[in-house]
Amino acid sequence: MKPIDTKTPFVAIAESRIGGRRENQDTCAWQDTKHGFLLLVCDGMGGGPSGKIASQMAADAIVNSVLDSTESDRRDVLARAIRDAGQALLSAQDSDPRLKGMGTTVTALLINRQSAVVAHVGDSRIYQLRGGCKVFRTFDHSHVFELVKTKALTEEDARLAADSNIITRALGPMENVEPDIEELPYEKGDRFMLCTDGIWGAMPEKELIKIAGGTKAVAGAVESLAIKVDEIGQSHGGTHDNLTVAILQTPFNSKLKQKMSTRIKYTLYALAAICCLSLLGNFVQYKMHARTSYTTEEALADMPADAMVTRAELEKILADERARNDAELQKYRDEIRNQDEDYARKLAEFRQILSDVAPEDKKSDPKINVIAEDATNMQVVNEINAIISQLEQIKTMREKGDALDKSVANASKEMNKLTAKVKEMKIHDPEFEKCVDKKWITNSITKDVVNPKREGHIKAIIKALESLRSTIKQQSKKS
After folding, report:
1. In terms of domains, do 409 and 462 share one?
2. Residue 40 scores a pLDDT above 60
């Protein structure tokens, strides 16, 4: 097992074993370059020593070409390097007839802080793994994988097929071979695995990914794969192929962002709709259960003329009813608060996903930006509802003291946060701005439980908040 020496921050480990063959015709090579860190794996083929010569010659040619390249586009750099390697193999065969028929596969990774550029010819593979799952894999240039494309075979059937080693593209046997090239974004902790068919052909892909992506340490993953493949080979007669694997792990996110798939887009649209409905449901539920205080005088006025009940008895009935209502109202407030916290977390995750969307996706799909704005608006509406709930609670408090002071101070603090956010969003609502300017929440009347104007004062603050909420919702509809 070889720890790979590099001045870059990437961590990489490689291993190459002979398997059950007389010679190891695989080659693994790496090099720090001005274009990024270059890592490649080649699987040679051909009679006698020509297979090893082919893989080594191709690896050397690719490394030298990348080192000498003055091109700026790393995809062009890698494509030219692989074409140069193919030409080098053809020239060698013309010079030495003993090398006729030699060839090699190649997988190459050229990675820097911007992105990862991957290229391949043949059936050696590159995997990108994230959180123990496959997010990218090259598609083999082989006879059986052409059948996989047409769905005539499953990938597992192709792996087990007798002619799985017949490849349709390789360096050496044919002229003008073009590699398949992809530029990939990556995230911190992603693993890029380069391997020959001696590795991936030994076991089902799920098992391969479980070992490569699920083993905690990169070195442990490489060693476990090599040991496992050797064990499988020995159990089947010990004539198994050469096996080479290299795994590189990324220490940070690439500057290139992941493009958003259609599936993810529709998932986000659905999430936005669910959040809207949930917030609406919470508000409706709250309005159904938030009951205003019912005074003794109002109750007496509503009583029939012949009702046989004293004022004391009526006050006792009303007090019991208020206690029940307050308990029921607090229960619903707690339920709504828990739901709101859950939706707030979802919205935060939602906005984080949107922040990682590639700029070109935002330009090509205007709905992305609309959803981002709606997510922010929904969060503000959520905060408005929470303050209204606090004010409704303050309105029912009948005694002066620490509890009332604390509730008013907390409502004022949340109002200040809301005001700052509304200014940042450049939302203008005259009724809300008037409430803020006059500092209605901290006005002494808010705590004056005997002042007959207190309830109307608090209702005016709630009305201002409702006006702001309406303005925000109208803004969302227009967008």
Report:
1. yes
2. yes
